[in-house]
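Incident log, structure service

09:12 report received: a user says their structure output differs between two submissions of the same chain.
09:20 pulled the input from the user's history:
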Amino acid sequence: MYSSFLIRAAWAFSLFAVICSYFAEFVLKYDPCPLCLFQRYLMVSILVSLFPVWGSHPFFKILATISGTIGLLISYDHTILQDTPYEQLPSLLKELPQSYEGFTAFFTLPVASFLSFALILICVVLSSIKERP
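09:34 re-ran on a clean worker, output below:
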């Protein structure tokens, strides 16, 4: 009963996240780092796989769960990376942009991405649970 509602909610979360990422890039003029781009690509793959027409099929739920889990791990790593002092970063990572803007000191763009992936995964997993008759 709630399965289709949860799939549509997960699809709406991913659509909102993609719109916000493009808004931050093109309107607010934030340059995305490679980790931001990976997260965006994974969010678009979730958006396509959970399209309401075929989102209830188990194959697409599995595809969305895999993409969401990878995105959750990348966004967690990105969140930890933003709190690492510049001097302690490996030399390869010093090329990344150092400005992580956000609404508050805690709620930055990588944290928002982490929360989006977590909400999508919760919705997809809950939609896969069979209801008792």
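09:41 both user submissions now match this output. Likely a transient worker issue. Closing.
09:42 reviewer note: The CA atoms of residues 13 and 116 lie 7 Å apart. The helical segments are 3-26, 34-49, 58-82, 109-128.
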